[in-house]
């Protein structure tokens, strides 16, 4: 009997590892696509004669379409299940990625980024819906940390490896290769992730029922305070690594394509480590709020330091990029806090609504900071130092404002919801 139990446990562990690896694999591709403008932003600006606002728009529309997809995605997850959603989204992502590699005008590049955003919209929420259904609640934050940490390898690929590929085969051909990676990841998901038992769509609901479910999720206590902090958490990382970090290193420090890719690589590596470290911190503190407040206050301090100092020494610059990866990685706890607010029947919809805040916050930050940079005169080296200081200062203030709202949130770790 003991041997049988051990064998079943071994099979269950193996199946869990395979599932997590498959889900993290397709999330890696999504992470690459969302952050792929950071390294090539100076190239795009020069090649297409784009202003800072236009570069910001080209990057941020990915997050706008991603966020806009979250409400219908939440309904689809509850109705059809994660597997179908992931495979449909993969097809859209492949079209968008190939279009980005082929078209020449800023308009069609923007359309391609919209398709990338739509196609990537389910690769965090669908895995989280699976984890919420199949694993105990007290392991959810740890699984989120693992998902984010492994998935962030995709962001890692969007730094030094992407810079190397761009130097070798150009950015357009690099996106063709990425489209092939989406195909491979989708095939893996189709094999590993299983349908519901009957393999049929879930109970159909009317549009009115769908809207009622969404409104019910919005009315859950503490929804808005946690939603507010979602706006600033992930955007504080992506506004640097996914967009302005590359131009900042080039214009202020004179970094080449390869050098800026290497420095962004450092930040992403720090985020991977940070996701693993922050993931179980809710259990360590027996609280969601405490680690979130610590992580985001440190993030605001890091950005505020750059706004004040402007130019760092080489060692200080290296440490600053480590910090900009490490501290915002508390996002894994922010996501777990959001998930804990909802009863099981609303988890799919609730988490996608929260993800609207996460991705919508990036759209807001990248769009506004692009406009901020355009307020300053362009120097012979590129965007002015004071423009970057204003960007970092804006993001630091953004974090602090959302944390003030977050203080009103209930901590489900300390005060469990009535349905739990």
Q: Care to describe what's here?
A:
The chain is mainly alpha-helical and 420 residues long. Helix content is 79%, strand content 0%. It has one domain: Growth Hormone, Chain: A, CATH 1.20.1250. It is globular, with a radius of gyration of 21 Å.
Tally of strands:
0
Question: Helicity level, as a percent range?
Answer: over 70%
CATH class: Mainly Alpha
Choose one word for the global shape: globular
CATH-level-4 superfamily name: MFS general substrate transporter like domains
Q: Total number of helical segments?
A: 20
Q: How many structural units, i.e. domains?
A: 1
Mean pLDDT: 85
The CATH architecture can be given as Up-down Bundle
Strand content: under 5%
How far do the termini sit from each other? Answer: 34 Å
The fold-level CATH name is Growth Hormone, Chain: A
Low-confidence stretches: 4-12, 198-202
- Estimated radius of gyration: 21 Å
What labels would you give this structure?
420 residues; 79% helix; 20 helices; Growth Hormone, Chain: A
Give the structure's gist in a few sentences:
The protein is 79% helix and 0% strand. Mean pLDDT is 85; it is low at 4-12 and 198-202. The protein is mostly helical.
